[in-house]
Amino acid sequence: MTLRPHIASLAAVPPEPLTVADLACRRGDRLLFQGLSFRVDPGAALHLEGPNGSGKSSLLRILAGLLAPAGGSIAGGGSRGFLGHDVALKPRMKLGEELAHWARLDDGRQLLPAAMAAMNVAALIDVPCKHLSSGQRRRAGLARVLASGADLWLLDEPTAGLDTASAALLASAMAAHRAGGGMIVAAVHGDIGLAAPQRLQLG
Predict the structure, then answer these.
(1) What is the average per-residue pLDDT within 111-117?
(2) Residue 89 resides in a domain
(3) pTM
(4) What's the average model confidence in pLDDT over 165-187?
(5) Would residue 198 count as lying in a domain?
(6) Closest among 185, 180, 104, 109 to 152, alpha carbons compared
(7) Interatomic CA distance for residues 156 and 139, integer angstroms
(8) CA atoms of 9 and 162, how far apart (whole Å)
(9) What is the CATH number of the domain that holds 124?
(10) Measured in Å, how far apart are the chain's first and last C-alpha atoms?
(11) Is residue 6's pLDDT more than 60?
(12) Mean pLDDT of all residues in the chain?
């Protein structure tokens, strides 16, 4: 099942390009990067590459508004959907209840059924989150991003813990998102199924 409602909404109102200029990030007394500039147009994707500790995750958190930059500016990009290393599902909540909670906050209730089907988690709605495998948790986190209806997906190593079939589902979802004018910025350690991504090396 494709995310047709999301694609239609993006096609009707294309988001502004994500434009980053002279961005800097400092964590504690360590300067991770500075003078970072790039642009991601609607329908495009960007690979963030580099060794662990180079600032990929911090850059995603800055773009998501979860971390303040030490300098520079960020403009455009529309609404954000973020998936970090920690999927942050409440252990005692059933998966369906947890995803419905986030969908209400993101105004994505209409998109949630398609998102859950796209990431093959619809059959897990009655399973407490504490009983989910790492791969199931990852797919659930991705379903939450899909259901958010966000223009810009910010994904931190999204294929971590996914088997081949699940990675293929993600690749299809990302292709559909881009076809509707959506943008993706992903921290990666290799191919995640994005066609012709831009690349930015950190570190």
Answers:
(1) 95
(2) yes
(3) 0.91
(4) 97
(5) no
(6) 185
(7) 13
(8) 29
(9) 3.40.50.300
(10) 39
(11) no
(12) 92
